[in-house]
Amino acid sequence: xxxxxxxxxxxxxxxxxxxxxxxxxxxxxxxxxxxxxxxxxxxxxxxxxxxxxxxxxxxxxxxxxxxxxxxxxxxxxxxxxxxxxxxxxxxxxxxxxxxxxxxxxxxxxxxxxxxxxxxxxxxxxxxxxxxxxxxxxxxxxxxxxxxxxxxxxxxxxxxxxxxxxxxxxxxxxxxxxxxxxxxxxxxxxxxxxxxxxxxxxxxxxxxxxxxxxxxxxxxxxxxxxxxxxxxxxxxxxxxxxxxxxxxxx
Length: 249
Hints:
Blueprint (H helix, E strand, L loop, with lengths): L3 H37 L13 E6 L1 H4 L10 H8 L4 E4 L7 H10 L7 E5 L2 H5 L4 H19 L4 E5 L13 H23 L2 E4 L25 H21 L3
Parallel strand pairs: 1-2, 1-3, 3-4, 4-5
């Protein structure tokens, strides 16, 4: 006897298997592109013999500038262009998570900086690391920076809406948007508790600036392109303007 229900069930299972296979294949291809973007990227930095101020940048691939066609179009590159009299040290690394940044800070020599910019959280968001763990590690990082680098101002540029990236499609993008939202809020709470300036890059998908007037992602579908970094830098510059201006006084 022909079992229609079983046939439909097997057909649906087949569709799901094909969908999962296609998605995994696409993620693999995009992941390879992300690795290639990281290998091609070079961090922007500039050392002056008698600088007006010293700035340290630490963090992950977005602080490093992965996705930009040249270092000048990254966040660090744009900061250097705006303030050529500053020394800007870029100690960011591709694929750096919070735990790795703690180790990195331990390895760095003690030095005084007038401003430290931290851009971190993307890898931990992608790994779906628990927000409590992220908050604990972030607090450890921010307190260590204040002690190690004797900086009067630390700025945290926290994670964007990872689910809004081209890299992910339904239903995975909803999961990552939900987690990105929680991570952004956790970062805000830690910054408020530690006296750190918070620049949140999170926006809901419908209003995410990297999807307005076009899609401003690099070929890997997850890092910003030149225009994407320009958009992010405008947000960062607006938030840190009073602290940067104080470095001229």
